[in-house]
């Protein structure tokens, strides 16, 4: 009996490994937080480019985000969760549901909605649904994939990362205003004219 269980576990592990090996690769993957401070509500901006065409009951995204706490909510394919495909906003009617829970999010498309190969996808989750961890650190998703029928189609390699920290943002570099630029240009022009005038007088 133990041998049968061990064999079943091994077969399942090999099957998962084979699925991961066969899956395409998501590229240009990023996860950006609008507020990276601990224990704070934050918008989440997710971007990636697909490799594989998907047209059968696809999950546009099935992911779990370490370091983020997501409120349990279903049918949030509205202002709380929005998605664009190649720069075009996708209507609510394209989705069966958009769901968040604990650390996860999934966007399920209706049958017949196609994700083409090479598609640029952007997904934004509103801060009303997301809070950062109370612990500072660099985090990555524990799962991040497009899947179809429960099988991974495209996954990133490596996983994207995002930082939760109390460190202040870099200080802005001072820049000259438009009026300051005009005054500086006028001053330089006046200095140049004065220098030329002096040279002519000494000749």
UniProtKB/TrEMBL annotation:
This is Opacity protein-like surface antigen. Residues 171-201 form the IPTL-CTERM protein sorting domain. The chain crosses the membrane at residues 179-197. It comes from Brevundimonas bullata. The keyword Secreted does not apply. Residues 1-23 form the signal peptide. Keywords: Membrane, Signal, Transmembrane, Transmembrane helix.
């Amino acid at each position: 009996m133990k041998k049968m269980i061990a064999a079943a576990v091994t077969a399942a592990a090999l099957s998962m490994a084979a699925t991961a090996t066969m899956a395409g690769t998501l590229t240009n993957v990023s996860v950006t937080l609008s507020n990276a401070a601990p224990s704070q509500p934050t918008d989440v901006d997710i971007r990636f480019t697909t490799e594989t065409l998907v047209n059968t009951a696809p999950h546009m995204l099935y992911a779990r985000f370490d370091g983020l706490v997501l409120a349990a909510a279903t049918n949030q394919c509205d202002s709380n969760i929005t998605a664009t495909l190649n720069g075009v906003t996708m209507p609510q009617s394209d989705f069966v549901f958009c769901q968040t829970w604990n650390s996860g999010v999934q966007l399920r498309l209706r049958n017949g909605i196609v994700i083409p190969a090479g598609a640029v996808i952007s997904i934004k989750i509103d801060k009303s649904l997301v809070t950062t961890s109370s612990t500072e650190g660099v985090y990555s998703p524990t799962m991040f994939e497009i899947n179809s029928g429960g099988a991974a189609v495209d996954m990133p390699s490596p996983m994207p990362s995002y930082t939760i920290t109390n460190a202040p943002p870099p200080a802005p570099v001072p820049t000259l205003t438009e009026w300051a630029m005009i005054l500086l240009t006028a001053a330089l022009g006046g200095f140049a004219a004065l220098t030329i005038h002096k040279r002519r007088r000494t000749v």
